[in-house]
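Lab notebook, page 48
Experiment: co-folding of the full assembly
Goal: obtain a model of how the components sit together before planning crosslinking
Operator: M.T.
Materials (sequences as entered):
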Amino acid sequence: MELQHVNIKIFVDGDLAVAPARFVDVFHEWVREQSLDEMLIDVADYRHVPAGPGVMLIALEADYNIDQTAGRWGLRYNRKSAIEGTNHDRFRQALAGAINACHLLEAHFAADGPLTFSRDEFELFINDRALAPNTPETYASCKPEIESFVMDVFGHSDFALTHHSDVRSRFGVNIKLTKPLDPKVVLDALQRNA
Amino acid sequence: MKVSSARWKSRLDGTIPDQLAQEIDAFELEIELRLQDKVDEKIFAETRLRRGAYGQRYDNGQRFDGTETRQLAYPEKSSKGPGTIWDAPGMLRIKIPYGGMNPEQLEVLADLAEEYSDGIAHVTTRQDFQLHFIHIEDTPTLMRRLAAVGITTREACGNSVRNVTACPFAGVCTDQAFDVTPYAHALAMFLLGHPDAQNFGRKFKPTFSGCAQHSCGLTAMHDLGYTAVTRVVDGEEQRGFRFVVGGGLGAVPDQAKLFDEFLPPEEMLPIAQAIARVFGRHGEKKNRSRARMKFLIRNWGMEKFKEEVLKERQSLPDDPRWTEYLDGVADDVETPLKPAGDFPTVTGNEAYDRWFSTNLREQRQEGYVTVSVALPLGDLTPDQLRALADIVRRFTNGTVRTTVEQNMVIRWVSKSDVFDLFEALTGAGIGEPGAGNILDIVTCPGTDTCKLGISSSRGLTAELRSRLAKKSFEMDEAISNLHIKVSGCFNSCGQHHVSDIGFYGVNRIVNGYQVPHFQVVLGGQWEENGGSYGLPIVAIASKRIPEALDRITDYYLRMRQKNERFTQFVTRVGKGQIRQVLDDLTKNRPDHDDDPSFYSDWGDPREYSTGDVGIGECAGEVVSAYQFAMTDAERMVFEAQLFLDAGNVQGAGTEAYRAMVRAAKALVQIKYDDVADDADEVVEEFRDRYYDTKLIFDPFAGGKFANYLFAAHSKVGATFTSDTARHAIEEGQLFIEAVHGCYNRMRTAGLSESTEMS
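Observation: model returned without errors.
Model output:
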């Protein structure tokens, strides 16, 4: 099963300690500096929408946002362009994009934050209902591949995978690690294997 | 083709009406042909517009980043229209005739917003939905998924018949003459893709209202406005429409003119077809800024227009659809899911009480209410759309509509379910109170996504909402019932003309920097289907608009007479007096270094710019001389308004013309110091130096605004009516804005300095 349009959400640890408006400034700065791998285009501000996408950084190939959907703040990376290669390659690319953005945000707000993202929990979605309808069959088919990817990246099998089973939602899983990991190490591993 | 696009095409095969499926296939092919450069970019642009695929800000590949204008490195270099880069994401507009939707459609929209856009579905001021940041290659798949649930994007944009809007309470309203829903549906279906509606020079907007007194249909501002009326003939009640034509907002708004006091339903479709033919044949094609139907009616006069239409009507070959569409038309086509009931007793729930006081409306059917779902800035998320679908299914037979106030209305809610429904909405984050009150500000996309936006209408609206939310339920009812509408530019997509207090974006130079401003528009009327249009009284810096709003509302509260409505109050005290209250907000602007935030817009930390603007070394002196003259011109056009308010229409028209000449002279003087005060000389010099050289040409509107001056000058001494005087004021104001725009462009290009020295 070919999976495209991988979407990763890494939760904020605890409450969001930074005013959401601050991300508007940061994302504009990133557009100006073209700070990420994608071609950055614009910033969309949806802070007025309850439990919405918050503040978005729109790129040609992907979107980033400080996201509050389902009531939990987090950094979401949503890949829009197709990527050649294997599903592992696509998972790796999206996770690296998300972790890199979290890392940059933590560094940016280090002085006046603290803003920290979870080291032990994230979500992975396939934002494409044609490729991955959210069914038990899709989960059964994708589970081994996702597990193998997580083991490959984090180097162990101490994690729990939970399927979001609402059929109307995008296919997605929650991944909870038993041991917190250093994001820099993970990022290095992801980039080394890219 | 993407793998998922191919899968959708295959999966939906046979579920889409043949004609629509073929059209979408053809569009998909045209995308391929354009990529191979086998279709001209202009033709492709109009083709995609007629499919609802619209351009978005920065699709020309340039973006001002707060410091300088930079090229965005889009990889695909071909175009999807003149000046529009292929890879740049755009907007898809989705037509929802009369706003009518069902839960399945809400769910599909949710999926599309999630998979293809930025995760937000936006309700527009024409009851459409819009999705932003869509890639052109994905649009056929979106169209197929929409078509499979009975929705089309066809003719949502471009020179076509736009979404047919209607009162969202039609059929359940206590004031209606009859339910206009089936008539709106009939007109939408009849004109969709009709061969006689494919040859327009500009768009064409129809609407329906069930009554004359409320605002739900806004018939006065539409090309075709149908208001339900009845009459009794030989003891039998007959249905018909009070039919008006040629209304429109835009830069210079027009109230629609009466075509027929009683248009029988069986004549509704043939007359619309005849109008489409006449408009297609005789409407302006070359000059887009004068191509709406209102200009044809202005040129011809109503009598000739009607004569031509009736003549065309007589020559039309019979079409059985004229009456087939109306077969079986009856009231109460919707039915409730639950039995009628009484409101539950709820005590001690302040949030519910507030919501109950603003978001409910009694239906004509006893025991039922409509419930408004107030959407901040018209936005909602995929999760909220799905929750709304669930709620609509749980409490009704799937009856929900979008509104021109950018909300949703759930119909046929049993009164006994109201509290449960409130809790369900609140759980989904869409249980906000304040529908239809001061908190419920209508706004266009503005600089967020629109290529024409000058100021951040959404940024301002979000700021005003945030401030008003804290106090809206402690406000006097006179204030909380006011309507505010915001547009990002003069084109009026936010409908600022038909609000109690309107704002539209303009820019001004302050201390050598561009600063986002909004014109404050007063005197408009939301009621009576948009019964009168407001006029701008003063431009105020964007960051000072919240203070301006506070002052206007405080002044109204202090000075109003008992039960005096806001529009009546504005007429009584006069705009001059209200402007006085705001006067100091136009002065004492902070230096850039002291308060840089004054020089940026709401929700956008970049230093404000309308383009690639730098700061000229010699600007100060030039600006002083120029601004002096322009201040004069602005004062004069405002005085013209005061004349009009006082009933001096001749004085109003004349003063508006003089203001234009003054503004023209301000520009001429930059190049030719010795120009005389004589209007003939000013206009001649202006034409020579700015029009023939195209310096005054607006990047989008071309020479439109300069032509206002030339037209006014050619008619010096003519008698004004209240309508023509009002047009003169609007045109005067727009000409002044054009002069500001021209000056800003010259500064950017360094022309003002060099010519000033020459």
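Interpretation: The two ends of chain A are 21 Å apart (CA to CA).
Next step: discuss with group before ordering constructs.
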